[in-house]
Design brief:
It contains eight helices and 25 strands. The protein is an alpha+beta fold. Strands 3, 4, 5, 6, 7, 8, 9 and 10 form an eight-stranded antiparallel β-sheet that branches. Strands 15-25-19-16-18-17 form a six-stranded mixed β-sheet.
């Protein structure tokens, strides 16, 4: 009787081949005795590989601003309007009798006084006329009829000076402007009283111009996240040693997962301040307030440069400077740029530093050859402005805005450096605050800047019968973008 071997045939195979009988699978398990994974110790790298390097994106707001507490559902700030008197969008009289009568929109107040001297500009045909104000009528805001009459210093009227009444006149041409540049009085005259009522202006008085402020506001949003792990999984031991951002390490994956949840939440705190939008669709979003982020603030109240590329040279960048001249003209500014835009700036600045006669000029870099030969320019001066340039990781990361091209791409942001003076109603005094800063909800009862707490019955928390550890994160905050007219958002085309 033939003997049947317990583990199969004992006749060796004439060719080397992989069979269940001679191959041990590392993925183990199953019913077969051949899947005994631990028979041979595998070579295992205990340290995880940082495939994407430092994956966090926060840090932008820490560089450009500050964080301050607040105890309200809304933060309101006031911004000064322009100092000098000018108007656009007005109408000139339609008949010969009123040919020199300028009527202002009902949305603005007439603060032009008799004997003021004004300049009228027509950008369509280049007409320019300097005039003396001979009459002025003030009305309440919202009422029609606020107007003033002018007498040209040269010529007989605005029609003869190139300002044509009617459909093609001042009221139909965008950009028509009039501004006050002074006053002119005859000898021996005086102003008389100072009171100014509603109606025709007394020739012996001047309009007292009350400072005008524009108020803006923002409201905080509540941002939350949570990481949950069961009590059983907390006891699982892994083969790979995981490290957290705070320097701790171990073979427990929940340590890594909890740490990454925290890091992701901290990024969300900044990303929400960048991308936030007000809730304008209450029918579907309900009572969620939304908040105005940086991009929304610049697009609403700031400057948007579409299709800018430094590769075109200085001329395009100089146009931005000319626009800044018309705003606050903040001397120091920071440029947070997408990679390609940053390289274009380097190329533009490198072309400037290169000598026209084969040599190298270092005047732009204070005669520092070492600085000039470093092609990654971190700072430069153009005109009366200083710029400090850096890459913004948020615009380069493929999981956020990085890699996006076309009209949805954000290629950079220009942020004015320094602080602005504002009136603090709580303190009752003027204080200086960064143009860009975060306000978070806090009081003696609760600090909601960055809250974290444990719930459940595992991991040291004993708050419920849930056999798990719940790590909770919460913050309530908003962004204040002051003087947004000095910010520039660079967008693609």
């Amino acid at each position: 009787m033939a003997i049947s071997p317990l583990f199969g045939s004992i006749i060796p195979s004439q060719t080397q081949q992989v069979l269940p009988s001679n191959y041990l699978q590392f993925n183990a398990g199953g019913a077969g005795a051949n899947d005994f994974a631990q028979q041979f110790l595998p070579e295992i790298y205990e340290q995880e590989v940082e495939r994407y390097g430092n994956r966090t994106l926060s840090g932008f707001l820490k560089m450009v601003g500050a964080e301050m507490p607040m105890s309200s559902d809304q933060v309101i700030w006031s911004e000064q309007n322009r100092l000098h008197i000018s108007y656009t969008g007005f109408q000139i009289g339609l008949d010969a009798a009123n040919a020199n009568l300028i009527t202002l929109p009902a949305t603005v107040s007439n603060v032009v006084s008799i004997n003021d001297t004004v300049v009228l500009l027509n950008p369509v045909n280049g007409a320019e006329q300097k005039c003396l104000v001979t009459g002025s009528t003030t009305v309440a805001i919202g009422a029609a009829g606020g107007s003033f009459t002018v007498a040209p210093f040269v010529g007989t009227g605005l029609v003869a000076a190139g300002f044509v009444a009617g459909a093609v006149g001042l009221g139909a041409i965008p950009g028509i402007k009039v501004f006050v540049y002074g006053s002119a009085y005859a000898k021996g005259t005086n102003l008389g009283g100072v009171a100014q009522g509603i109606g025709a202006q007394n020739p012996n008085t001047r309009v007292s111009v009350t400072p005008q402020l524009t108020q803006f506001s923002n409201q905080p949003i509540i941002i939350r996240d949570q990481y949950v792990i069961s009590g059983s999984d907390m006891a699982q031991i892994g083969w790979v040693e995981v490290a957290t951002e705070d320097g701790t390490s171990g073979f427990l994956w929940y340590l890594k997962a909890e740490s990454e949840t925290r890091l992701r939440f901290e990024d969300y705190l900044e990303m929400s301040m960048i991308e936030g939008e007000f809730n304008q669709v209450a029918a579907t979003l309900g009572t969620l307030p939304g908040t105005e982020g940086l991009f929304a603030a610049i697009q609403t109240r700031g400057n948007v440069e579409v299709g800018f590329t430094a590769a075109n040279g200085l001329s395009e960048f100089d146009n931005i400077l000319k626009n800044l001249d018309t705003q606050g003209a903040i001397e120091e500014n920071m440029l947070f740029l997408q990679r390609q835009t940053s390289l274009d700036f380097d190329d533009m600045l490198g072309a400037i530093s290169w000598g026209a006669q084969g040599g190298t000029a270092f005047g732009l870099f204070e005669n520092s050859e070492e600085m000039a030969l470093n092609l990654g320019f971190s700072g430069f001066r153009r005109g009366s402005y200083d710029f400090y340039k850096t890459d913004w990781k948020y615009l380069n990361d493929a999981s956020t805005r990085g890699g996006i091209v076309g009209i949805n791409s954000v290629e950079g942001v220009l942020v004015p450096a320094g602080t602005s003076t504002v009136y603090d109603q709580i303190l009752g005094t003027n204080i200086r605050r960064p143009f860009l800063h975060v306000r978070y909800r806090a009081s003696q009862g609760d600090d909601r800047r960055m809250k974290s707490w444990l719930t459940g019955s595992a991991g040291g928390a004993f708050t419920s019968t849930l056999d798990a550890m719940e790590v909770n994160f919460l913050s309530e905050r908003c962004l204040v973008t002051q003087a947004a007219n000095n910010f520039v958002l660079f967008k693609g085309i």
